[in-house]
Write a structure and sequence with these properties.
heterodimer, A: 292 residues, alpha/beta, Rossmann fold, 2 domains, 6-stranded mixed beta sheet, 4-stranded antiparallel beta sheet, disordered C terminus, B: 270 residues, globular
Chain lengths: 292, 270
Amino acid sequence: MTDILNIDHLSVTPNNAPSRYLVKDVSFKLSAGKTTCIVGESGSGKSLTALSVMGLLSNQLQAQGSIQFQGQEITKLSSKALQSIRGAKIGMIFQEPMTSLNPVLTVGYQIGESLTAHLGLKGIALKDKIAALLTQVGIPPERANSYPDELSGGQRQRVMIAMSIACEPLLLIADEPTTALDVTVQAQILKLLDELKTRMNMAMLFITHDFGVVADIADDVIVMFRGEIVETGSRQDVLNNPKHPYTKALLACVPDVEGKKELKPIDYAWLNENPLNENPLNENQPNEKVVS
Amino acid sequence: MSQEKSNEIILAANHLVKTYTQAAGRFGLGSNQIKALDDVSITLKEGSTLAVVGESGSGKSTLARCLLQLHPFDSGEVLFEGVDLAKLDKNALRVKRQHLQMVFQDPFASLNPRMKVGEIVGEGLLIHGLGSAAEQKDKTLQMLVKVGLQADDAQKYPHQFSGGQRQRIGIARALVLQPKVVVCDEPVSALDVSVQAQILLLLKQLQAEMNLSYIFISHDLRVVRHIADEIVVMNAGKIVESGSIEAVYSAPQQPYTQQLLSSIPGRKAA
């Protein structure tokens, strides 16, 4: 199994407050054909981690540490060099498809943009490829001439997926791609993403706050809390046998559909008194601090 | 949920119909008639929670608004303690509204950013003229403490609070009037799962203390399982299935309910 992405001691801090860590000392690897879920509450740093990989951090923030994509260090790349990777070898899907799509261009045109930019496709070849992509994500190819407002939320997210896989990326980053969708549509989109991942042997980095989604789609799970990774492991290990007190507490908040579980809110006072680094973690947790 | 509940029906809706006219076509030149509520009937028993679940566009929020007479509807009736609310004049309705309150989804959008929390929570008492100024202040502070905030918080503005705390303010605002029925429209959807658990427990605790009856609008079937006694499932403006939580979750009769339940993420064991 080859590593597609290797993040080593990644930290993100605001430019004007370099000692305030929004993401702190995060390290993990992604390999082909595997889905890794980053799960955490708002402000845990899960989206910032994904944005760092794509080189899309706000210029108010700075990232330290190493991000290697296929063995190549991408944190030092020029924005032009990064552009040739982003959208081609790394695909992205965001939460709200309507804000990510341009309302005045047809969806076919928007899918075609990256094909022209990265692969130089034109004319009939371009049209055929767009039709093939739409079919692949379960949309009739004639919808290429539709505008985003003529599609439902689920269809828009399918269009976003078609755009993100257009250039057959090695890595697909999905940031809460189903959070804005109805539950039945969510189930369809999760199934589609899982099928595409397997068929194209992509590595998928899937950001979510929903443990139900984690249970459906993840191979591996990373739990983040206040910018740090508190636990990593296989889906089975993290969901059924969590080791870190925060993971246990977070799982205890999740309502189950059987209604048998007693909901228990997280005791933040306890967590504050018991700093994370003094708790026994599993061996994947990097212990040394960033020296940079 | 196991405690004794009276079978007294406190709120009932009979055969509600509500039609919207929607602009259609590229420049909105055509129009479509959308039936947001198509012959919807529900009953809410005193002290219990009725969940209304459905996907976007199913009509669940329209139902909430029609129940509180915030939206006019085409036909049907809403009975609160046996009184047809639509037949009341403005003043009589206002008096009844004290007992019919609402908790909204987005606690930031529903709180006036220029008002102090004490003013927001106490405004209902002022409008309904309940008690002297000193009594109103006391009630407001007591309510803040009851929902897990502090009396000092009355002097702060909404932006000084987290999402979960803002939802507590929204709950205090609704409950300070000692209502009988509270319509909660997706009250925990915008919250992190840990905060969601806190708010759900708070709503349950207050229900027991104040003998509240809840209409709980939600798209999240996992949340509903933990708070509701009875459930109605809506799709395209119609009620497709209704019954006790146990019955509907353990043996859903309608294909749509079955599809909803099987779509809940995390159902296949990890």
